Each structure stands twice: as C-alpha cells, then as structure tokens.
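QA checklist item 7 of 12: single-chain prediction sanity check.
[x] sequence parsed
[x] length recorded as 262
[x] structure emitted
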Amino acid sequence: MKKSFFERELAALEFELAKLQETVQRKGLKIAILFEGRDASGKGGAIKTIMRRMNARIWRIAALPKPSDRERTQWYFERYVRHLPSGGEIVLFDRSWYNRAVVEPAMGFCSADEYEVFMREVPQFEKMLIDSGLHLVKFWIHVSPQEQEQRFQDRACDPRKRWKLSPVDLRARELWIEFTKYRDAMFDRTSTHVAPWLVVEGDDKRKARLNIIRAILDRVPYEFNEQAFEPITLSPRPSVEDSDYTEPALEDLNLVKDYYAD
C-alpha cells in the first residue's frame, strides 16, 4: 500500500473518529475495544495510530502488567473491571482478560481448572457489560508465521526495538501450534452474537490499521454534530507592546543548548 494513499485515507478516517469522539463525550457513551493477537501482530501500532490525533482525556489505553500477588487472589476479571470506561470514555485494551484464553494456558501460567472457569464465565461477563450499556468490540490481529518471524528478527537486531522482545515472546515463538489451538478454542467458545470476534489480516500493518478503524466506525453509533465542528473565530491576540509587561530576553532564561545550530 502506497504511503500517500494511507495518509490520505487515514486523514479521512481521523475526521470520522473525531465525530465518534464528540458523540461519545456528548452522549456519555461507554466503549471498550480489545486488541488481541500474537506477539508482534501490531496491536500497539494500531492503538497508536488510532490515538494519533484523539483527545487523551476521552480515549484511554489499558495495558496491564502481569498480576500482582494480591491480584492473583482476586476474581480474575476484577483488575480489568477497574479499567472499564465510564460515561464519555473509550478504553483501548492492549491485551485484555483474554490473556487467560490463550497466553496463560499455552505458557502454563494458569491451571486447567482456572482456564475452564474463565471460558465458562467470559460470555456471561461480557453480556453483563453490554446489558449495562457498554459497547464492546473485540479484535484479533492475525499475523502469519513468516511475517511474525521477520518482525522478531527486526526487533532482535534494532536496539530501539529490543524492549519489545521479552523472554515470554521468545518462549511463545516456540509454542506457535499450542497458541493456535487455544486461539481456535477461544473463537469457538467466546465469539457470541452480542460480542463476536473480529479477525483482522495483519501482515500489512498500514492496511490493518485502516481496516480496524473502519470496523470500529461501523460498529459504534455516532453522529455528525455540525455545530461542534464549525470553524472557531479567534479574537485578536493581546499585544505585549501595548501593555506594561516587559518580556525577558530568551537568552536570559535557562535556555536549552541548540544542539543543531549551524
């Protein structure tokens, strides 16, 4: 996909996201969007693209670390419930409660009983959220073995991206088949009429991001409030010269060195 087309299309979609944002704030809607997928599938990149021009007071990112000792004793969903949106908010989950459907059982981080309890409870949990008025969208970003390997090699060789490659990622790389089996079971048992899984082809990152944004716009009702987007006429800026204030010279301040001076 040519970059020029991507930028043009993204700019148009960002205007639609702005309409969605205004509708959510005005109507007090609650939206939770889950991003799941294998390591290096593009979850974080998709979220950053969505957030690029959005209001961070309305859109929030929830990327939870591994549970603490205290959280391990709680109801599994409890730590995620604390991050759900209130009225007028959109929360983007960079991984979610579905860790227990794929990552945890494949890696041996939960017991078989804990896994089965989760798989029975999650459709009920999500139905309760939706019945309470929350809009829930669930994405699985699919990446091929070849593309994931290329991205892993890139992370392994680029110091700027090394932080993205953890020991857990490397272990998961060896468990491709196990992850696939648990993913298939997740689709089969937790994709419901009210909360279906939406699978995004993710080998082309830019196209995947556009498709994700369009899917969000297709599934969350929003309006164009023309009044909210009318151009604002700015009043004349007050003139320092016409006031009794004397602004200090820039050189008299604790000025950062110009590292790029000619």
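[x] summary fact logged: The two ends are 38 Å apart (CA to CA).
[ ] second reviewer sign-off
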